[in-house]
């Protein structure tokens, strides 16, 4: 479709005009504009309506917004009624938001952070951080291309295309991978940090961690993690001050 590369570049700035009234709407309209140019010569009135419609309220995960953009643009080219296109955009908001959050914010990002921290603690070069950053951006770019192409190829059938794709399965598994890597990073980093202090502080830290888990389980919201953390910090400062 004409204007695809321009639309992809503009999708990277889809949050550039984010606001409480339209959320990603203006960014979506900006990205859709080059994909809608071919409609103008054939049907100027339809083109004007499509441009306005593409900039209306829309909110989802920004990395998956291309699915909705491509699907709605394809629907505009296919002559689907405007009311139906508006419903399609609205219906995609929550699923794309949930899938994107699962895949990236609860999966890929914490997994890569945990992996880079573990690698650094185990003696890897600081360049490992750059490797993870490049890897993340390559993945993010590939997902953007896949999302836009899938949306354009599916049109109003984009929901079925998403269900049959790799996305739901990857989003469901990403959190488990992140949990595994975070679970590895915590003891490795903790051991590295406490090593210079000797056995006593290590035992105290482990005891404090166990106490936190028990209190959170038994006390519930009354002794939730933030309150326990503040109490632990205060106790640590008090004991440290008495010992120095």
Would you give an account of this structure?
- By secondary structure, this protein is mainly α.
- It has two domains: about 5-180, no CATH class; about 200-244.
- It has ten helices and no strands.
- The protein has helices at about 5-10, 25-40, 45-55, 65-75, 80-120, 125-155, 160-165, 165-195, 200-220, 225-244.
- The longest helix has about 40 residues, at about 80-120.
- The chain is elongated and about 80 Å long.
- It starts with a helix and ends with a helix.
- The model has no long low-confidence stretch (mean pLDDT about 90).
Tell me briefly what this model is.
The protein is an all-alpha fold and 244 residues long. The chain contains 10 helices and no strands.
Number of strands: 0
Query: What is the 3D shape?
Result: elongated
Between the first and last Cα atoms, what is the distance in angstroms? 71 Å
Q: Given the structure, what is the number of helices?
A: 10
Report strand %.
under 5%
Derived from helix and strand composition plus strand pairing, the structural class reads mainly alpha
Can you tell me the residue ranges where pLDDT is under 50 for at least 5 consecutive residues?
A: none
Assembly type: single chain
Overall tally of domains: 2
Mean pLDDT across the residues is 89
Helix content: over 70%
The topology string of helices and strands comes to HHHHHHHHHH
Describe the largest sheet.
Answer: none
Radius of gyration: 24 Å
